[in-house]
Amino acid sequence: MAWCIPKYAPTSFCSSLFSSTKKPNSHPFSFSTFSSSSYSTVLATPTFTWNDILNISQSSTSIQQQHPSSYLQGFFHKLQLCNRGSEKQSEFLSFVVEGQVVGFIHNGFAEYLKGFSDVFIFPKDKSNGNPFGNCVSLHPMLKTYEERTSAVGYVVERLGEERIPGIRNELYPVTSSFGAPIFFSLERAAAPYFGIKAYGIHMNGYVELDGQKHLWIAKRSSTKPTYPGMLDHLVAGGLPHGIDCHENVVKECEEEAGIPRPISIKAIPVGAVSYMDIDEYRYKRDVLFCYDLKLPESFVPKNEDGEVDSFKLIPVVQVAEVIRKTQFFKPNCSLVIIDFLFRHGYISPECFGYLDLLRSLRIGDCS
């Protein structure tokens, strides 16, 4: 069932809306000009319940009153939350390894690294074969994967929680693009401080009941160091060093939702979304590989690693309303679910802003 306009709005009204004149290149939902101030949202709190979520998702008042030309505003706002701070890119230095840009480091954070001159160097011009101008690089004595991983790991350990909070002892590969040679591995929590590309997997677990698709939604544990108590996918996780995407999906399925391997191996890769978010010293350049898994009606998820508080099976149209009207979801989950809405026909080309929204799902460097 495709929708982009309230089902209560007459077709004739819709037709007149789309035939109205407007200035060229003045799309009302241009991602670069969309203002969050024009969108009224329900702010998430750590204390919202499943009843709160269901009440919001089942409420028809706002849908009935929503003007068709502004229906996608809530979705655009969620993309904006994941793509902030582009005007601050000039505050970052390129992080270069073996002649390849692998990340971006804020000038302020770079000051902390200057105390480790046996690990990091700071070329300041394009002389001596350096084409990047001012940048950060690794000391030329660090030649192997193991040497670099150990040396940078030592720096991260010394900087500690004060400079890099949430250290997890989980390594991410440092590379110029997906599938390219890996120069070294870096603590996951440090990834945004070095601006490296981080990859992850997000899986939409859905069930069809009486011809209607439902999504299994997770509510994160209140003890999680990031986004505690917020809504999440049934299965999601970062892509650490040494495991491919599909095997990571299978592993996370077992740990996060108790999905046995004979079911999880049927997860289908369906594309990727990307975003670039700058927040003070943090520069997130994330690519999320998206998977769909159709689950048996009888399946009930069970968390095995303590990171999920509870699960709920919710009709897709209601999940879309929660995303559109609240900030209950962990921000990057909204992008993956919006992509699901496109692929399963819940958002159609008749929607004002259709192509802008679709294009903005991969506004980051998807490589």
Task: Outline the fold blueprint.
Layout: H1 11-18, H2 50-58, H3 61-65, H4 73-82, E1 92-97, E2 100-106, H5 107-113, E3 120-121, E4 135-138, H6 145-163, E5 171-174, E6 184-187, H7 191-194, E7 197-209, E8 212-220, E9 231-233, E10 235-238, H8 245-257, H9 261-264, E11 268-279, E12 282-294, E13 308-315, H10 316-325, H11 331-343, H12 354-360
Parallel strand pairs: 1-4, 7-12
Antiparallel strand pairs: 1-2, 3-4, 5-6, 7-8, 7-10, 8-9, 8-13, 11-12
User: Using only CA atoms, what is the Rg?
Assistant: 22 Å
As residue ranges, the low-confidence spans are 5-45, 60-65
The H-and-E topology, N to C, reads as HHHHEEHEEHEEHEEEEHHEEEHHH
Count the E strands: 13
Strand content: 15-25%
Give the N-terminus to C-terminus distance in angstroms. Answer: 32 Å
Basic shape:
globular
Query: Which structural category do the helix and sheet elements fall into?
Result: alpha+beta
Main β-sheet, in a few words? 7 strands, mixed
**Helix share of residues?**
25-40%
Roughly what is the average pLDDT, rounded to an integer?
Answer: 86
Helix count equals 12
How would you characterize the overall build of this protein?
This protein is of the alpha+beta class and 367 residues long. 30% of the residues lie in helices and 24% in strands. Strands 7, 8, 9, 10, 11, 12 and 13 form a 7-stranded mixed sheet that branches.
Which properties best describe this structure?
367 residues; alpha+beta; seven-stranded mixed beta sheet; four-stranded mixed beta sheet; 12 helices; globular
In short:
The chain has 367 residues and is an alpha+beta fold. Helices cover 30% and strands 24% of the residues.
